[in-house]
Design goal:
Layout: E1 3-4, H1 7-13, E2 20-23, H2 25-38, E3 44-46, H3 53-61, E4 66-69, H4 72-78, E5 85-88, H5 95-103, E6 109-112, H6 115-124, E7 132-136, E8 144-146, H7 159-167, E9 172-176, E10 181-183, H8 187-203, E11 209-211, H9 228-239, E12 249-251, H10 256-259, E13 263-273, E14 276-279, H11 288-292, E15 299-301, E16 313-318, E17 327-334, E18 343-346, E19 367-371, H12 383-386
Bound molecules: pyridoxal-5'-phosphate.
Amino acid sequence: MDVFASAAELLRHRRPERPVLALRPHTVLRAAKWFVANFPGPVLYAAKANDTPQVIDALVEAGITAFDVASLVEIDRVASVKDAELYFMNPVKSRGAIARAYQEFGVRRFAFDSADELDKVIEETGGAHDLTLFLRIACPNTHSLIPLEGKFGASQEEAPGLLLKARQRAIRLGITFHVGSQAVVPAAFGEALRQVGQLILSSGVLVDAIDIGGGFPSRYPHSDPPDLAAFMAEVMREADELAVKHSCELLCEPGRALVAEAESVIVRVDARRGNALYINDGAFGTLFDAAYSGFRFPAQLVTPSRGSPEPDTEFVLYGPTCDSSDFLPGPFVLPACVNEGDYLEIGQVGAYGRVLANRFNGFGVFDEVVLTDEPMLSMYDCAEDEATDARWPARA
Ligand SMILES: Cc1ncc(COP(=O)(O)O)c(C=O)c1O
């Protein structure tokens, strides 16, 4: 893949016809190192966020070789990582996927959130006695921009019975939850951990692992969360209250926080109508969250001939397809002079960008480059200074 110092440098050499996915692998390395140093237990990467090989390579280089996977395709993408540890954390899996994951890929860690799913896992692994089972519990979406509640998770009433049942089958037993993606308040994790603590007490079942899921935030123009250190402090504080704290492993499964800032998309403006810009990527490409989750991504004008006039005007964007829902309300703040033929860099699309892009209307094909400059926004400005080599329970 060609390497450039910045989007502007790329445009000094080329006028790309297709949108360009611009990867900054060094940001993945930095984010992953930060998590490894600051989370008090194994860090799994949620492969669904972005499973491009360069991202996986950077994670591995930083020491992350465990993956939360949701399908056989995701398993296949990461299975070649040396000593990969695979956690099949989709709470509803097909029988065929469970059987192949167990037999062909050696997966031994599975999530479930119902008695039916637990039975399925046990049946399709031939009544295996070497399983680590994670009960996914429902947890209210109190503090995240992309709720994950409703679809999955055992209720407070169901959970104790399910824990007991799984305890009898699992060599290791865990509880997991997901507080919702882009959780912007550290208390989201504290509240969920308190719920776990109550479940352990009310069920009387001891667990060996608590997987606190993903949800750690990144930075966007509309969402400026506290530093990740505040999230870690909250997790440590509440985890320290758990009855199982001396015998239990703590895990996390970040996706967004590791890769959001790792990619920009460089797009061309194909038309301007008032303050609406028609660009060559959109809701059916890497910008799904801008259309359907109310996300505002940072944007800047990068056409070299334009210099860099001050951004001062709010624009809405339309993607290239004929669907009128291919609309990104933003607003995106750009210089007033932007016009047809200009190129924009839209940042922070590394999580749930390329993986959601489809070929609707014949679009969704990208050129790819590597950029070596810094992302437009970052959660890791002082990453080196913040690393603390965390342990849990806290060392005396
Ligand atoms: C089970 C599970 N773990 C982890 C993640 C990653 O979440 P995030 O990208 O918000 O960190 C997701 C996202 O949907 C998920 O479903």
